[in-house]
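Notebook entry, structure prediction.
Reason for the run: the old model in the group folder had no record of what sequence produced it. Starting over properly, with the input documented here first.
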Amino acid sequence: MKVTEKSLKARCTELNLGPLRNTTFGIKATRLNAGYTVELQYRDATPPQILAESVTAAEAAATVEGAAAGAAAVKVAGLDKPEFVTRDTFIRQAAERCPKCATKDIFSGHISVDKGSMIQKCSCQRCGLAWNSIYRLDDYELSLPVSEMVER
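New structure, fully documented this time:
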């Protein structure tokens, strides 16, 4: 069956009024020029979380179904909304958001270096959470070509 904008919006409404009704979020699919965007819309002050951007209608529908399945799994576990984002999400967001409230209003403090890694103390100006962001060495890049280095 072909996914249309109308069927996608109807499915979001069905989920928001049904299985997602008692959760702390709803799901929204929006059609833009570059494709569809699917977001989690929290019922509190948490900023929306984009799940998919610039995708086809079929990909948006799959994202909506995945979010509904994820919500069901979280509900079975006894939580409506996880307290913190997952490690993968935190890394994908490049440590630019608070792992608890997702604001970008974070303070990045002192960096300490220890054999192949750096640890930066961070804190959220909104919710007060403090954490360490850990950066690990995984490669190097020469800034000058080797031939220029030999000539010096």
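Summary: The chain has two domains: 5-77, 99-136.
The old model has been moved to the deprecated folder.
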